[in-house]
Design brief:
It is a single chain. By secondary structure, this protein is of the alpha/beta class. β4 and β5 (about 180-190) form a beta hairpin. α6 (about 145-160) crosses α7. Helix content is about 60%, strand content about 15%. The chain has a domain at about 40-240: ATP synthase, F1 complex, gamma subunit (Pyruvate Kinase, Chain: A, domain 1), CATH 3.40.1380.
Length: about 290
């Protein structure tokens, strides 16, 4: 059985670890709240953009736009694959890695060429371990989610799609639902799918487009793709911080439980030691008598 001195050292070590996990939990909570506000505030813009796009999709110019061109026999697919740069967030990255690997294997079995756009150090490390080459990598955009960076990535994908280098673009990320719920999601980025419910409602107003529906479509669709890239990166960051907060809270709770158990064991050891010493003193006293 461990001596009381050794147990005391373990209690000290676990207490120091608890301070670290508690601090990381507080930092992750602060960052989660920040990105939660960003995701929540950006949703009205995205929803309104989708609503305008839904009404424009009834125009003939929309279905014939190059960014909405569906190609029957795709040859090359791009996967925009977003993870985090750091760990200590439970199974957050492993779920994204499994989804990326599964899609990559599925498309290669279908004789499709797959270009991986890896965002985050965990994605790069996983792909390197799997001996899978990346077409593009970035470890900064998933830290700051600057609009310029997300627009650059979106424009890069749109340019390759319009020139015919890519036939489809999909994105893998962690969809933020709430502080306690996130899920790995896959969405098609290109070609743009017409929003659901594009059937015309009787209450809708007839619009006269100026300068024309085609000109508005040319401006709106790239904005839609750029907003989607920004949204998925922001949601992935919010999900990462939520997962890290949960992981650090669980680690802190486990440390509290371990400290409590070790303290009880230490107290029993100390009591046994004191009892033994008292017994020895009484025995020696009786011997002298």
């Amino acid at each position: 059985m461990a001596k009381a001195r050794d147990i005391k050292k373990r209690i000290t070590g676990v207490t120091k670890t608890r301070k670290i996990t508690r601090t990381m939990e507080m930092v992750a909570t602060s960052k989660m709240q920040k990105w939660q506000r960003i995701v929540t505030s950006s949703r009205p813009y995205s929803n309104n953009l989708v609503e305008v796009l839904r009404q424009l999709c009834s125009a003939p110019e929309a279905s014939s736009h190059p960014l909405m061109e569906h190609r029957e026999h795709p040859r090359r697919v791009a996967l925009l694959y977003i993870t985090s740069n750091r760990g200590m967030c439970g199974a957050f990255n492993s779920g994204l890695n499994r989804r990326a690997r599964a899609l990559y294997n599925q498309y290669t079995r279908q004789d499709l060429q797959v270009d991986l756009y890896a965002i985050g150090k965990k994605a790069l490390g996983f792909l390197k371990h799997q001996d899978i080459d990346t077409f593009y990598s970035d470890v900064q955009v998933n830290e700051t989610c600057e609009s310029e960076d997300t627009r650059r990535i979106a424009q890069m994908l749109m340019d390759r799609f319009l020139t015919g280098e890519l036939d489809r673009v999909e994105v893998i990320y962690s969809h933020y639902i709430s502080a306690g719920t996130q899920e790995v999601a896959t969405e098609q980025l290109l070609p743009i799918k017409p929003p659901r419910g594009q059937e015309r409602e009787e209450s809708e107003t007839d619009f006269i487009f100026e300068p024309s529906a085609a000109a508005i479509i040319d401006t709106l669709l790239p904005m839609y793709v750029q907003s989607m890239v920004y949204r998925v990166v922001a949601e992935n960051i919010a999900s990462e911080q939520s997962a890290r907060r949960r992981a650090m809270k669980q680690a802190t709770d486990n440390a509290d439980e371990m400290i409590s158990n070790l303290t009880r064991t230490y107290n029993r050891q100390r009591q046994a030691q004191i009892t033994s010493e008292l017994t020895e003193i009484v025995g020696a006293s009786d011997a002298l008598d």
